[in-house]
Write a structure and sequence with these properties.
mainly alpha; two-stranded antiparallel sheet; 25 helices
Length: 591
Amino acid sequence: MTLQALTYIVVGLSFVLYIGIAIWSRAHNTGDFYIAGRGVSPIANGMATAADWMSAASFISMAGLIAFLGYDGSVYLMGWTGGYVLLALLLAPYLRKFGKFTVPEFIAERYYSKTARIVAVICLIFISFTYVAGQMRGVGIVFSRFLEVDVTVGLLIGMGVVFVYAVLGGMKGITYTQVAQYCVLIFAYTVPAVFIAIQITGNPIPQLAFGSEVADTGTALLDKLDDIVTSLGFNQYTSGTKSRIDVFCITMALMVGTAGLPHVIVRFFTVPKVRDARLSAGYALLFIAILYTTAPAVGSMARYNLINTIQPGEVGSADGNLAYDERPGWLDTWQQTGLVRFDDRNGDGRIQYYNDANPDFAPQAADYGWEGNELSVDRDIMVLANPEIAGLPNWVIALVAAGGIAAALSTAAGLLLVISAAVSHDLIKGIFVPHISERHELLASRVAAAFAIAVAGYLGFDPPGWVAQVVAFAFGLAAASLFPVILLGIFFKRVNKQGAIAGMLTGLLFTYGYIEYFKGLFLKWMGSPWGENVAEHWLFGISPEGIGVVGMGLNFVVAISVSHLTPPPPERIQHLVEHIRVPRHFDEDHA
């Protein structure tokens, strides 16, 4: 059976499973649609949370980042995993104890202000649409390669599937669909990793293979990889190039951004008790760790296989580089997607793959007769192409395609539901039509979800960067806007509505403005004014991926300062904060 036919079967069966679950668990009321009737078990919620959070960035892009960045890519591992510790300790149980449907609803009641609710909705929409743009890019990449359709067609197919189970099932349908998607994506991620670990090191456990020796060489995998990449002018794989302040800021932005993501927080509203919210966070961290401890091995093995395929002989020798006419099938098929490009600059018919931006390596490359790097590989394809590069069976390649789609769609569905709830519950019911019937609110939710899916599809055509980078922007926006006011709302009674509103707007506008300034649409229209030395223009040397930490600091300072310059919150709000924060035996058993 051909790879395309097998992929259609595997992906098609997964779609049938998702849609079937959505029909079986469809929402009948707003409680089902927003929080799954608060009847989800901690284990199921942990799996759903893991799938919701392990997006296309985790499945498709993170190992690709590690493959190309090496040590520098560890910031994504540390930040995204560490964020769940913050979430479990600082937010999840308290928000579940509060007992509302959405994050803006918590902010509205805690800060006794409809204006605060509207500002929170605006922040939520900025975060969610930025995040969902990365997911839709992931969907387009998977479909364009494995189903051999145009990216536009692939996006439309993905939008259609999400439409069915998000609009029909709501949070209840999404929750149980995400349980299935977690099983698909984790199986699809670990099976190829096991195969390739055995191929390269003989050790079937990827986490151990990462520190093992390459078979028949007596050299550790990472040492071998260091030798290979430095011989081609790249930075040493096991050393970093980012500044300490940028590493700190990116890691911190991803951590606190995780704890401020509305589509993740809302998952803890779906369990029956406060205790279950804590358990859900623990289970989610365990399920996430399976993929995240595997990712460094996947990234290193993918880079090793890629270079060995392109550079089969001695560097600089006559037959050291792969002849283009003898290119493997994976290279040819990925070229058709436009995500791999070859340009024979010196006309020798061979593929020169090296770091032509390294001035120290330039004389050596000139001695070899190389006139520039000739192969461009999009880092977002590494996990998807890895089984093909390694020559694994077609069924494994098809499984990876299904896993990539599951990862992208699971997070996209959670984000779209949060957007829909923000529009229908927080704006329509909470602000404009407070006496709307439950039936009409449910209809408004579904219409809002459909509209959000259309906008998400549009953003997926031309996102502002590669998948993990776009997702990092969303985490930075969450860190700068929602996380501080949620944390202050739980632990600081003195913070009032004026402080919260001013803090959210300051953090959001500063962070979004910085990202837009260095990565936004006007650069696509006008071109970058900084050339290749853009990092020299960053504030304090902090990249757009890490600037959310500065936005978060500004949010805290403004919120606290404004609160102390204006009247304190009403007495009832201060009692509410105490009720949320202080454990009570009755609440623990009955909340």
